[in-house]
Amino acid sequence: MNTKRKALSCAVIAVISSCPYPYVMAEEIEEVAVTGTRGQPRSVADSPVPVDVFSAETLEGVSYTDTNDVLKTLVPSYNVSRQPISDGGTFIRPAQLRGMPTDKTLVLVNSKRRHRAALVEIGGSGTQAADVATIPSSALKSVEVLRDGAAAQYGSDAIAGVINFILKDNAEGGSFSISSGEYTEGDGFQTTASGNIGLPLGSDGFLSISTEVSKSDFTSRSEQYCETWFCLDKNNPLYDSTASYAQFTEDETFMAGAKKASLESDVVNPWGQPNSQAARVFFNAGYNLAGGKELYAFGNYSNSEADGGFFYRYPYNGTIEDLRTEDGSIYNPLEIYPGGFTPRFNGEVTDYSLVSGLRGEWSNGLTYDFSARYGYSDIDYMLENTINPSLGPDTPKSFKPGVLSNEEVQVQADFSKEIDAGLPRPVLAAFGFSYMDETYEITGGDESSYVAGPYATQDPWGFCNDDGTATSAGMAAISGGSSLDCANPDDPVYTVVGVGSNGFPGYSPEYSGSYSRDSYAMFVDLSTDLTENLFVQAAMRYEDYADFDSELVGKLAMQYDVTDSFGIRSSIGTGFRAPTPGQQGTTNVSTRLPNGFPVATGLFPASSDVAAALGAQPLKPETSVNYTFGFTTGFDKLAMTVDFYRIEVDDRTYAISTLDVSTDTTSGSAYDNYLALVDAGVVGAESIGGVFYFTNAFDTRTQGVDVVATYPLEWGNDSTTNLTASLNYNESEFTSDPSEYLNAEDRYDFEHFDPKLRGVLTAVHEFGDFSVLARANWYGSYENYNADQVQEFDPIVMVDLEGKYHFTEQTNMTVGGRNIFDEYPEKDEIGDYCCGRIYSSGTIVDWQGAFYYMRLNHNF
């Protein structure tokens, strides 16, 4: 193995510290690191840490167009879920590597840090990370996945691993692809067109441009809304004709209106993927200057839109209520939406970046790489098919709640040099410095999206006295024919309804503003062969954040070749992740299900007066220790890597379980929470049913094992079937008591909700102009908790199958299907999900059913 060590050393350093690629022999890198589907080992066998490398051919062999889904298919420890009713999570999907949230995996493009998206996930870890979906797969030459903690090399947010996207660098030729498909349910039609073209820049440069345009329709895996509190389905066992909602379901006008309550689907509360469309472009350019120097630049522009539904608003649920208007008559939002309504949430995501730099080698052998980058992301929200209840009949039906944005500027200098220390190989030393400035901004929405209208308080027109008698204004209303009864506490004059655009109130000036910080970092990384069989690596990094104390972290790694075909490797490293400005500053009021029932729930910054009144403390950094141990082996034609890992995180950032809020003076702590909101000046506190905030809640341990194996089956007719098998076992547990912050359900689901086992087996067989790919995706069992009940979900296997035919060497067509046996996870049996939901919408197990597609590719 060690015959390739020198090339590998620089290849690894190139990934870790931006060591310039031109100083490594391309042939050796391709032999060691770049593999496709022709039987070569997929994992880098000579690396002291587990690294997967996927070529463009491998990426093109995955039928998905969303890069998140491509990674999910190829890397079992990488998972992404579809969250249809999750505010911004509908548009930027949360992912995880080795069971850790996305913000603990660093994303690079061409070995440079990718900027974070504007979205802060409002639950769980409050993830704010790079949006991988903005990187079109058509722009990629390869992808490298480092499955190991690397905070000492990269800094904050490289606790679980690193994903490095290498862009195409062709100076000529190109490709074009168009694909379309649909689910067997007859919905979710998708079309994607992508292309790449390489152009020369003079005689010594290149410009590679990649584009992607996509559009997909919504899906619905739902049943009609029917719960104990309101039911629209007379055939559902929950339906009770004597219940209060019978007056509505027997009303033809109401039922006709209910069919239009949602802008999409034939049920009022559809669960599935959103409508979406996107246009994306990436460019990569380089130019060789005299003296071996290279000037480079790359960047992107992405614009995408998606819209999804919120929870159905039924009559008398706190939003659709009778109200006394200024003339004493009764108004009800059913006058606007005769069958209730389902707010429709739309998000437009804009993302762009530019990176440029100069790299080369001085005469003393020191290589350098000076670079600067700028990255920007924003989400512009729009809400339609809803109301601001507090405005009564004067409410608009569509709103602009506001804009979230994240901006980053970074300058960096990286160096590397081989030093002769009398060892079998020179010591490769890499070191560097960086400065980063980042800003998270909340821009307020239009006034109607957050304003507290007259019906945010009782008796807005002064009709009643405190003793239950009518005022002169009240008497005038009564004389005009009003049914006003001040002595009746249930009279609509006393009704208080929610403030702001229902479903997602707009950002008011009080909760708008920007949060900025800067940071400095420096690192050193040393690697060499201590003996002919022992490769070692050591790294240290110092970081200083303006809003947190400085931190020093380190890492040690080694690879020992026991024989030419068997090696062992291990690493230990410490990590440090500073909360982002977004995590420290985000605020949100939305509809959630803290007790299985939809209520308006407020998220407030941990450092705000509101959260402080509820007991919150300002966020502090998370710290971690990461251990890996594994082996690489190869005998005959089998190549295999096995890696065990443990990630210990202290002071983990997490959202507390929702605290109940109630105006009922007998509700105990719920009433105390209401008073705390009032004392903190929260407008519309009467309409909020729950509150939560992020805090450093507990310590955790995540551990597991990754196995990757490849084997070529050779047949007598000179054809070969290339087999790739990968398996991940992962479990997370608390190492401190989280009961102060999480309720019993949240504690149980944290440790048991995701499958602990996940595997992928892929077979590719080529014969003549035709090839066949079969892939089995296996998800192990998992559990869900609700009200002292536990449901165990059985393991499930989903099979993909596709065939490809080459008309010419340049043109081919692919026809295939995902989940061809139309497998679904089990349905909810313990009543944990409501509102027409059939499957657990937050699971990483796909619940959309079978999907069939056709794709045409042409290379030129």
Question: What would you note in describing this structure?
Answer:
By secondary structure, the protein is mainly beta. It has 2 domains: 2-222 and 265-309 and 343-456 and 496-579 and 619-656 and 693-859, Beta Barrel (Maltoporin, Chain A), CATH 2.40.170; 580-618 and 657-692, no CATH class. The chain has 12 helices and 40 strands. The chain has a 22-stranded antiparallel β-barrel. Strand 10 and strand 11 (205-216) form a beta hairpin. Mean pLDDT is 89; it is low at 1-43.
List keywords for this structure.
22-stranded antiparallel beta barrel; 40 strands; single chain; Maltoporin, Chain A; 860 residues; disordered N terminus; 5-stranded mixed beta sheet
Oligomeric state of shown chains: single chain
Shape: globular
The CATH top-level class label of the largest domain: Mainly Beta
Q: Can you tell me the number of structural domains?
A: 2
Whole-angstrom Rg? 29 Å
Under CATH, the homologous superfamily of the largest domain reads: TonB-dependent receptor, beta-barrel domain
Q: Which CATH architecture of the largest domain would you pick?
A: Beta Barrel
Mean pLDDT across the residues is 89
**Portion in helices:** 10-25%
Strand segment tally: 40
Stretches with pLDDT under 50, minimum 5 residues: 1-43
N-to-C CA distance = 37 Å
The number of helical segments is 12
Pairing-aware structural class of the strands and helices? Answer: mainly beta
User: Would you tell me which CATH topology of the largest domain applies?
Assistant: Maltoporin, Chain A
Q: Strand fraction band?
A: 35-45%
